[in-house]
Amino acid sequence: MLLEIHNLSVEFESMQDRVKALQAVSFSIDEGEIVGIVGESGSGKSVTALSILGLLEKNAHISTGSISYKGKNLLSLSKKDWQSLRGKEIGMVFQEPMTALHPTMRIGDQLAEVIHRHRSISYKEAYRQAVASLAEVQINDPELVARKYPFELSGGMRQRVVIALAMSAPPDLLIADEPTTALDVTIQHEVLKLMQELAQKRGTSIMLITHDLGVVAQVCQRVVVMYAGEVVETGTTQEVLHSPCHPYTKALIGALPDLAEQGQPLLAIPGESPDLRNRPDGCVFAPRCSCSLPICREDHPVLEPAVSGSLTHQVSCWGRNQ
Amino acid sequence: MSGTTLKTESLPAARSAKTVNPFWYKIRRNPLTLLGLFLLLLILLLSIFAPLISPYEPTKINIPERFAQPSADHWFGTDEVGRDIFTRILYGARLSLGVGVAVVVGAGVIGTIIGAVSGYFGGRIDQLIMRLMDIILAFPALVLAMAIAATLGPNLQNAMLAIAIIKIPVYVRLARAETLALREKLFVKAAVTFGIPSWRIIVRHIIPNALSPVIIQVTLDIGDAILLVATLGFLGLGAQPPTPEWGAMISIGWKYLLDYWWYPTFPGLALFLASCGFNLIGDGIRDILDPKANRS
Fold first, then answer.
1. Does the model's pTM come out above 0.80?
2. Looking at beta carbons, which residues of chain A come within 8 Å of B120?
């Protein structure tokens, strides 16, 4: 296992409130694997990513659990060790390529700065590698682009640059936080393919955070479905997308618009995400669930094999056998 | 009515000029900035070419010609030991400009770094630094400068140091405010995830993007600093005689004002024009660099 998150809970504290953003989250990512983290806004996807990088805000604290990376417990790392881990071992790609680049620094210099930081080579050599890495993310005329400023590039090109930046060390784990949300569909496809190829070539694992099931189907080997800071279902892409067990996953898949059904109203999941300040005792999804049982509101379900004997497909639902 | 005619007249001109060079266009459109630029260039050229313009030496005593009236030989007259006042003003311009720029740029650099560090790290460091700056700001600027200069001993270096100290808090505040906003920008957060160390983020990612208000403040402050140097000189806490410094010249000269009017008048005029020039330029640059203050 490259990354193993076990029973991770994160709380945010403000003056009056205590928000439980993550509740006993567990999942793992293998070497070279692409794992999709799916869920709606506020489901704890980004908080999970920030926890792995040690970049949670000061008012957040990890109440239980562990994050182990290559067998080391990240939560016991010193600030300095964590610093050297970022970028070198774990890279991150952000949602907004428009603002993720330094506006007044040339592309080549931005890349060279990061490369120079992680490898013991001269700045000149780092710059040469920066240009090479631009070519690697399929940017035409990399020498020219290296001399440009971010505002001169299109969104798709910027996201490629961001990927080149995140992959420059190269890291063993790449966290991609909705990397294609801000891009249009054709560019989205190219960027995903690019990430997939780079990952394959270098053996990098990717934790792909997204709310787009189409993206998941396209590139991920496994999926973790999150809801209200909990993992509700996990399994291979095939299992989760084709035979979903959790009502939330089913509803998500059902809410995908279908071009064939023109004129039909868009399906939405009724209700809204629970108040993370007061988590219900029972299942977090019960208030919105179309098939909730009496037990759902009283007792919290745990992750258990969806089908008896399945090692990969797990679901946290009382009604999984119905 | 007049508004519409003005609009139709100025629009095409504005368009063509803006495509050529917006910076120069904006300066040209503002006559006061142009005046400031002119004054500044004049003073700069005069001080650079001082030895060529004037045949006299600024500190050479010539008792027989003391208190000579302004004439073709001595344009601004001479002082109580026969030194040519025009020459002394030219050399004084070198000193004033040099000191003014050096002090403000120095305060700007130090203040920006302190402010960026303070804003980036926040917490206790921030509190400590900002309270320290509040203490400095709580004193009337001139009084504090006088106190520092007097404590350290009256000479030009100490006067410069004193002025730099009272100028620093403004830059700290400006840089800190910009840093607080920049720190939340995604590209700074991204830099953190790429493993770039904090000092490098401050130097390469925060400061270059926080500079524009600092630059405006620097240009506005130079005129003020020149005045302060002269003030300290006037009070005997800055440059000491026989250094040709405007404030020191006025300080001695004002005693002779009734009998020899030219002695304090011309250095005063020079001081007025220099600080005026810098303030006009500063205002102009603020209008150019700050899109929010853009008056159409």
1. no
2. none
Residue B272 lies in a domain: yes
Residue B228 falls inside a structural domain: yes
Probe site for chain B from A59, A77, A86, A172 (most B CB atoms < 10 A)? A86
> Once rounded to an integer, what is the mean pLDDT over residues B39-67?
85
Helix segments in A77-230, DSSP class H: 79-85, 107-118, 123-136, 142-146, 155-166, 185-202, 213-219
Q: Is residue B197 a part of any domain in this protein?
A: yes
Task: Flag whether A140 is in a domain.
Answer: yes
| A300 Cα to chain B: minimum distance (Å) | 35
pLDDT of residue B294: 52
Contacts of A168 in chain B (CB under 8 A): 194
Q: What domain range includes position A197? A: 87-178+188-203
Total structural domains in chain B? 1
A74 lies in a domain? Answer: no
In this structure, what CATH number is given to the domain that contains residue B72? Answer: 1.10.3720.10
- Is residue B154 within 8 A of residue B237, CB to CB? The reply is yes
Q: pLDDT per residue over B226-246, tens digit each?
A: 999 999 988 988 888 788 889
pLDDT digits (tens, 9 = 90+) for B200-235: 999 999 999 999 889 888 988 998 999 999 999 889
Please tell me the total number of residues recorded for chain B in this structure. 296
Domain that holds residue B97: 52-293
Task: Give yes or no for residue A91 having a pLDDT over 70.
Answer: yes
d(CA A299, CA B133): 57
